[in-house]
Design a protein that fits this description.
Elements lengths: L8 H7 L6 H4 L6 H10 L1 E2 L8 E3 L7 E7 L2 E6 L5 E7 L4 E2 L12 E4 L4 E6 H8 L5 H25 L2 H18 L6 E3 L4 H8 L3 H13 L3 E4 L2 E4 L2 H29 L1
Antiparallel strand pairs: 1-8, 2-7, 3-6, 3-8, 4-5, 4-7, 9-11, 10-11
Length: 261
């Protein structure tokens, strides 16, 4: 019995409406028949316009979404009516995985610009993951990566000075754009200064002051929403404080656990 032919990248792109980000959303090396099954459940929705919701907190969980173009912010609303932004999502990233356990979305997702997404009904995706080698592992890896990102973000908010928070935000964006085949040193910020301040837990005036400060120090060139990184190494050094703090905290926990056992 002949083995299934392995589908290469150029074929994946042609099958999935020429989407160059498909390999970021789903694992590569799928057998041809498996790719047909996966592609058959993907729904292409109309674009989500700036300011429109992809889903709202409390909506029933039906699908996960792969961002094809544009960007969205995920946020929760507090009891006093304020919104707290918890993440920014770029092309090639999946959204909605955090709703699996509760069967309803725990946060809202809003487009920051005209955004195109692919919808993957979760029941069908879950059934396929049991039959397609690597798909279930890939979904678990994405969830693990999200947990790691949230851990780092909480450390940034709790422990880092404001200049390192902004540096970490910019270095994080730089790496994500590089992974997607875009420039890692020049990109547009779809988030407003208000949204950046909300995400990083600082005042809007502080964000504006830091952008001016980074320009004066020769780290950045800022023109409205356009960012050009001039000194990646210095920003990276400031960003590394996050990893250092997490490593220090994990070592402290291990030490404490050993001393009590």
């Amino acid at each position: 019995m002949p083995k299934d032919r392995i589908v290469r990248l150029d074929e994946v792109r042609s099958r999935c409406q020429s989407c160059s980000l498909f390999e970021l959303c789903m694992p590569m090396g799928l057998a041809e028949g498996d790719l047909d099954k996966l592609d058959s459940i993907i729904k292409r929705r109309r674009p989500v316009e700036k300011g429109e919701y992809l889903y709202r907190a409390g909506d029933p969980f039906i699908s996960v979404y792969a961002v094809r173009s544009g960007s969205l912010k995920a946020f929760i609303s507090t009891r006093d009516g304020r919104d707290q932004i918890i993440s920014l999502h770029l092309p090639g990233e999946l959204m909605g995985l955090d709703a699996i356990s509760s069967n309803q979305h725990i946060c809202s997702a809003m487009a920051l610009e005209t955004t195109s997404v692919c919808e993957l009904p979760y029941e069908q995706l879950e059934a396929l993951s049991l039959r397609i080698p690597g798909l279930q592992h890939h979904l678990l890896s994405l969830m693990s990566e999200e947990i790691r990102h949230n851990q780092c973000h909480m450390t940034i908010l709790a422990r880092l000075p404001v200049d390192s928070r902004l540096a970490s935000f910019l270095i994080n964006l730089s790496g994500r754009y590089r992974t997607r085949g875009f420039s890692s040193t020049e990109f547009n910020l779809s988030m407003s200064r208000n949204d950046i301040a909300n995400l990083l837990g600082m005042a809007v005036e502080t964000v504006s002051r830091l952008f001016t400060q980074f320009q004066e120090q020769g780290l950045l060139q800022v023109e409205r929403k356009h960012i050009k990184i001039l000194n990646h190494d210095t920003l990276q050094t400031m960003h590394n404080r996050c990893s250092d703090l997490i490593a220090s905290e994990e070592a402290s926990k291990d030490s404490s656990s050993s001393s009590t056992s």
